[in-house]
Each structure stands twice: as C-alpha cells, then as structure tokens.
C-alpha cells in the first residue's frame, strides 16, 4: 500500500473505492479499511467464506479499527455492480486465466476514457499475461512479509511478487 501511495495515484485516497476480488475471509479488506477509502468492498463467490468475511468486518468495525465503510458482496466477481468513481482493485491470485481475461475486458470497458480512475494491485500474479498491451506496469516487486503476516497466512510465500498496473493512455 505504501508503494502504491508513493507511485502517485491521480486522486486522494478518500476518493477511491478499494475492491478485493476474491476476498476470502476478508483479511485484505480489514487491513485496507484501516485507511480512509471512500468504501472497501470484498467480493467472494464462496458463501461460507463471504459469511466469515462479513462477521470479521463487523467485529473489526465494532472494535473501531475500520476507518472506511466495509461492504462484503457474496457473488461472482464478473457480475459486480461497479462502484462509482475511482477504484483501487486488489487481487491475491484469485482466478485462472479464463476468468482473469473476462475480468480485464470488463475493467477496460468500465474505465474506457477515464484511465486516471483505475489502479490495480495484483499479488502472486500467476495470470499477469492478461495485463498485456492495455496496461502500464507501475512496479513489480517481492515485498517482505512481517512475522504477523507469516503467521496469519502460512500459505503465502515472501517470494511472491506484487504488481501494480494503470490503464495505458493511448
Ligand atoms: C487466493 S484466495 C484470496 C483470498 C484473499 N483475497 C486474501 O488475500 O487472503 C482467492 C479467492 O477467490 C475466490 N473466488 C474464486 N472465483 C471467484 C469469482 N468468480 N468471484 C469471486 N470470488 C471468487 C475464492 O473462493 C477464494 O476465496
């Protein structure tokens, strides 16, 4: 997130909606909500995980840790009703190539003519090929994990890359 701030997004943080496609139990959603986004949205297809994400969001909000409103949407990322205004899209390796290609088509059509309103953060980017000609990579780096992260997510590997993209202005 710090890297993203430093890369010079076009708008103030409070103008962006943070969207986690495939939010699981909502850890990234909770952490994002510690910043003052316009809204933090987690989209999750698996009903059980979405319910857990919702419970976690309620606990987090009640504890006063969420500085942004949180919304969990149980459903298919491809059918999300897009928020208005600028978006920061976050993905932790959620989909295979076919779904990623469809998602990128939707992103490109949604943000056509307003490239300054879109930011993408893609962790463990196994389908990075889908961000071909239409996107500009802002950075790509393996970012060290804290001990807390390692304990919270034993599956993640500190060698996993994080990539950030913006729509290419043609
Ligand atoms: C690798 S997990 C990422 C979990 C979480 N974002 C994190 O950082 O810990 C990918 C998640 O995407 C969800 N998913 C898969 N296909 C989906 C779809 N079409 N729409 C929404 N979520 C989906 C899976 O159920 C899974 O919870």
Automatic annotation (TrEMBL):
The record's annotation in Pfam families points to: Methyltransf_25
UniProt organism field: Tunturiibacter lichenicola
Name the record gives this protein: SAM-dependent methyltransferase
Alphabetically sorted, this entry's keywords are:
Methyltransferase, Transferase
**InterPro entries in the record, alphabetically?**
Methyltransf_25, SAM-dependent_MTases_sf
According to the record, the residues making up region (Disordered) are 151-170
Biased composition of type Basic and acidic residues is found at: 151-163
Glycosyltransferase as UniProt keyword: no
Q: Name one GO biological process term.
A: methylation
Key word Phosphoprotein present: no
Domain (Methyltransferase): give its ranges: 19-86
Superkingdom of source? Bacteria
Q: List GO molecular-function terms, semicolon-separated.
A: methyltransferase activity
**What start and end residues bound the annotated signal peptide?**
none
């Amino acid at each position: 997130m710090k890297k993203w701030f430093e890369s010079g997004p076009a708008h103030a943080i409070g103008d962006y909606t943070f969207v986690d496609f495939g939010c699981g139990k909502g850890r990234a959603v909770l952490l994002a909500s510690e910043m003052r986004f316009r809204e933090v949205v987690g989209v999750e297809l698996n009903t059980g995980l979405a319910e857990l994400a919702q419970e976690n969001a309620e606990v987090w909000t009640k504890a006063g840790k969420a500085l942004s409103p949180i919304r969990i949407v149980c459903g298919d990322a491809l059918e999300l009703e897009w928020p208005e205004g600028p978006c920061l899209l976050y993905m932790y390796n959620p989909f295979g190539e076919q779904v990623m290609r469809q998602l990128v088509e939707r992103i490109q059509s949604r943000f056509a003519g307003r490239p300054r309103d879109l930011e993408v953060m893609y962790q463990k980017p196994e389908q990075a090929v889908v961000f071909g000609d239409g996107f500009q990579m802002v950075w790509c780096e393996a970012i060290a994990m804290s001990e807390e992260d390692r304990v919270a997510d034993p599956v993640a590997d500190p060698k996993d890359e994080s990539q950030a993209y913006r729509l290419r202005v043609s």
